[in-house]
Amino acid sequence: MTLSQILSVTVLAGMMLLFLWGRLRYDIVAILALLAGLAVGIIAPDDAFSGFSDDIVIIVGSALVISGAVQRSGVIETLLALLAKRVTRVRSQLLLLTASVGFASALVKNIGALAMLMPASFQMAKRSESSPSVFLMPMAFASLLGGLMTLIGTSPNIIVSRVRGELTGEPFRMFDYLPVGLGLTLIGLLYLRFAYRLLPRDRRAAPTMGEALDIKSYVTEATITETSPAADETVAAFVARHDSEVTVTAVLRAGMRSAPHPDTELRSRDTLILGGAPDALERVIARDRLALEGHDRDAPEGSQEDDIGVIEAVVNTESVLIGRTAGRMLLQRRFGVNLIAVARRGERLTRRLANIELRAGDVIVLQGPLSLLPERLRDLGCLPLAERTLRLGSARKGLLPLAILGAAMAATATGYVPVAVAFFAAAGLILASGALPIREAYDHVEWPILIMLGALIPVSDTLRTTGTTDLIGAFLSDTAATLPPWGAVAMILTAAMAVTPFLNNAATVLVMAPIAATFATGLGMRPEPFLMATAVGAGCDFLTPIGHQCNTLVMGPGGYRFSDYARLGAPLSLIVLVFGTPLILYFWPAL
């Protein structure tokens, strides 16, 4: 080995040890690895930041924005409600989610399928009172397995098809991958249904301030519109239709207030006092087209729709709101903000919002211009709750985000548009259409993940630039000459799975496919099983969050550590090796 090759392996080994140590955050480790590569001279200064322009950074960032828009649209929630009553156990929910994302990944790009179904995992986790981390990593692994089934499921399949076309004049077709990919997907889904317990139970994304305060129930005020499905429905039917997630504490009709009886028939223009969790209230108000109290009041002159937002705040002990009601304070007229919800721990509020006498410690939701809300909170003596996203009364774009995502997936499936361009365009159209406000879009992007990717790409590429990959290829060729066909195929499969955590999967195929084809010819065997093994191995990175963008996508939302991937992924990698080798040789004989 040359000095540069030794230095490349040393830097990568040191980086992996720091990842496994876990004391430093993953983006800091990536930055240190990049600085080490620069310091020892294996990374040229001109190439140091090339990773930040790599397609994978654009794909992951765009996918996070798209996923946020799909989650905000409420479409997934509506579809999920149809199954939620029957699918309540964690194992059943996990099988439903992993199977859905796995088979969807066969028809569309696996990163797109995962981004589309991630919001469903959060809703399922809430219903089963479990952490989303139970679902997210198994879903990412299922998307990798599902991508093996067709030509368009994952990038390695496309590259391997091209290599076979160059060698034999006949590339792999759309469903040539299906027999092997389907078998591995079914076996993998069965494993994930039971093996999710290997994940640590304490993994979850960083808690928000609102979660720390354990605010579970708000009271808000909404009016039934002419087009609402709640019109002419009884109170009992209204509550049952929404799975008892909200309660109706009072009904206001023609200025008269009454306690709701289960048989009370609701009418248009009735005002309901609703209680429930913020996300449940949001779903009910959006789904039933209710008019939220204060939401239709005039916004200050010059403010745009994207400038209007909501903020959650705690009434301080010295607040001017203590002992007073919103009606008497004339919040809209004097301060330019609307009170749209109130929560009080340990007490069920039943009065109209304007008549609730506020106390210290109450949590309130105010609506107004985002540029003025911090100043207004200071004037009112309230403390904002950071990093808490509430969308009460905000508009939803329904099917628009899904339509944009579907168009992006179709564009990539035809091969006319690269994945990075399609996803970036989809994210841009989502922002331009207002399906996701710009401020929320930036909140959805996991910036530490993108920093890690941008820093690691040039570090991983040193394996290629220093000639280390050529050295590995020569070693594999020498070793394969003494092995039987199944042993040679298993070795290529193992090598591809070992290399792909350090290179991205496309780069792994570009390096490994020519090596596999060359020594298949030298051994007098057909190249197809070796190329198929290369595609399967390159598409199956279950050991790290950096080898495939699907693994990277779930790292932040799931609160995972670097070492968590190997806990669930190492046995799955062994399963792919044990079952994948005979499947490949059965459908693609070597002789």
Structure characterization notes:
It is found in: Membrane. Residues 207-290, 298-383 form the RCK C-terminal domain. Its main location: membrane. InterPro entries: Cit_transptr-like_dom (IPR004680), DASS-Related_Transporters (IPR051679), RCK_C (IPR006037), RCK_C_sf (IPR036721). It comes from Sphingomonas japonica. The chain is of the alpha+beta class and 591 residues long. Helix content is 56%, strand content 8%. It has 26 helices and 9 strands. Strands 3-2-4-1-5 form a 5-stranded antiparallel sheet, covered by helices on one side. A 4-stranded antiparallel sheet has the order 7-8-6-9, with helices on one face. A hairpin with a 2-residue loop joins strand 2 (246-253) and strand 3. Helix 8 (155-168) packs parallel to helix 23. The longest helix has 24 residues, at 564-587. The radius of gyration is 27 Å and the shape is elongated.
* Straight-line N-to-C gap: 35 Å
- Percentage of helical residues? 55-70%
Oligomer: single chain
- Strand percentage: 5-15%
**Shape from CA axes?**
elongated
Model regions low in confidence, pLDDT < 50 over at least 5 residues: 296-306
The tally of beta strands, per DSSP, is 9
Q: Biggest sheet, open or closed, and with what strands and sense?
A: 5 strands, antiparallel
Q: Pairing-aware structural class of the strands and helices?
A: alpha+beta
What spatial order of strands do you see in the largest sheet?
3-2-4-1-5
Number of helices: 26
Q: Mind telling me the C-alpha Rg?
A: 27 Å
Mean pLDDT score? 81
InterPro entries: Cit_transptr-like_dom (IPR004680), DASS-Related_Transporters (IPR051679), RCK_C (IPR006037), RCK_C_sf (IPR036721)
Subcellular location: Membrane
Main location: membrane
Membrane topology: Multi-pass membrane protein
